[in-house]
Amino acid sequence: MHTHFGDYIFSCTFEKADVDNHSPVNLNNQNKIRQVSSSPKTKIVVKINYLIFFFPDTSTHSASLSASGGLTCSRACRHCAGERALQERQRQHMARGLPKQKPIAGVKEVIVVASGKGGVGKSTTAVNLALGLMANDQSKSVGLLDADVYGPSVPKLMNLKGNPELTDKNLMRPLVNFGIPCMSMGFLVEEVAPIVWRGLMVMSAIEKLVRQVDWGNLDYLVIDMPPGTGDVQLSITQNIPIAGAVIVSTPQDIALLDARRGAEMFRKVNVPVLGLVQNMSVFQCPKCNHQTHIFGLDGAKELAQTLGVEMLGDIPLHLNIRETSDKGQPVVVSSPDSPEAEAYRRVAAAVVRRLAEHLR
């Protein structure tokens, strides 16, 4: 059947869902459709491409919109068993349409560092997390991928410039500093050149940054994700097996709202949320040592409790972090004995522990 909505035509298939046998049967004419709609033991299932909408017979029980997008019974009844079976078949059908995850050659575990909002120190945290992982265990090899195509920060933070060379297999060689191989869109364009691309071009660029790079053998690949919950996040999480996600936020309420959205997104795509990092948690005056919670007190800790995830650590709002980052000398390597560097190393240790717990 073809249904017209404005300038769009939707091709629909009507099926009779037998509640007792949980098996849909195609209906060939409208007479049968009318017969089905008058029966209290049946439902009409309308399929539009990959979307399935369930229309229960409201003469026998009421219905409400569920989080999965289907109409579900608002009270327990014998119709619910058949509906759950149909929803399970819907979930399996949708899963078949998703791309199969393929590991990155030579990479053991992938850690994504994300935030729902920009400007919370996510890239600085990702860089120092990568350096902290290696500082805590010199036997581990760590790589860093800058997936923020529109606003790459890794070249500046890691003090790297230039274009990647190509191997005999036509793979890009990452640029290396402080023992960390790095790849970023910032290596492929001019430093001040804006990247004005549509979604498909961005997806193609991400695929090249991930798959067409000679990463060698890495124990951890830290991915600095762009802010938000858009195409890049979905593309990476659906195509690459992710060991876990680290959510970065300031204690400020407005940042925590978006951080929660980011955490919920990873849960929806079955990526373990390792925990939250509370960045810019407190400012200590360098003259009198008075502490001021500029962005609020313990907001990320409260969010972690609400989400049921771990608080990985607090990073202070400190001049040393800003100055070393702007110079391309991250605090973990330029001031390894400072309290700020120790804070990042504690976060790195917590991430490794959470990864081990997840593998058990």
UniProtKB/TrEMBL annotation:
<dbReference type="InterPro" id="IPR000808">
    <property type="entry name" value="Mrp-like_CS"/>
</dbReference>
<keyword id="KW-0411">Iron-sulfur</keyword>
<keyword id="KW-0809">Transit peptide</keyword>
<dbReference type="GO" id="GO:0005759">
    <property type="term" value="C:mitochondrial matrix"/>
</dbReference>
<keyword id="KW-0547">Nucleotide-binding</keyword>
<dbReference type="GO" id="GO:0016226">
    <property type="term" value="P:iron-sulfur cluster assembly"/>
</dbReference>
<dbReference type="GO" id="GO:0051539">
    <property type="term" value="F:4 iron, 4 sulfur cluster binding"/>
</dbReference>
<dbReference type="GO" id="GO:0005524">
    <property type="term" value="F:ATP binding"/>
</dbReference>
<comment type="function">
    <text>Iron-sulfur cluster transfer protein involved in the assembly of the mitochondrial membrane respiratory chain NADH dehydrogenase (Complex I). May deliver one or more Fe-S clusters to complex I subunits.</text>
</comment>
<dbReference type="InterPro" id="IPR044304">
    <property type="entry name" value="NUBPL-like"/>
</dbReference>
<dbReference type="InterPro" id="IPR019591">
    <property type="entry name" value="Mrp/NBP35_ATP-bd"/>
</dbReference>
<keyword id="KW-0479">Metal-binding</keyword>
<dbReference type="InterPro" id="IPR033756">
    <property type="entry name" value="YlxH/NBP35"/>
</dbReference>
<dbReference type="InterPro" id="IPR027417">
    <property type="entry name" value="P-loop_NTPase"/>
</dbReference>
<keyword id="KW-0004">4Fe-4S</keyword>
<keyword id="KW-0496">Mitochondrion</keyword>
<dbReference type="Pfam" id="PF10609">
    <property type="entry name" value="ParA"/>
</dbReference>
<comment type="similarity">
    <text>Belongs to the Mrp/NBP35 ATP-binding proteins family.</text>
</comment>
<dbReference type="GO" id="GO:0046872">
    <property type="term" value="F:metal ion binding"/>
</dbReference>
<protein>
    <recommendedName>
        <fullName>Iron-sulfur cluster transfer protein NUBPL</fullName>
    </recommendedName>
</protein>
<keyword id="KW-0408">Iron</keyword>
<dbReference type="GO" id="GO:0032981">
    <property type="term" value="P:mitochondrial respiratory chain complex I assembly"/>
</dbReference>
<keyword id="KW-0067">ATP-binding</keyword>
<dbReference type="GO" id="GO:0140663">
    <property type="term" value="F:ATP-dependent FeS chaperone activity"/>
</dbReference>
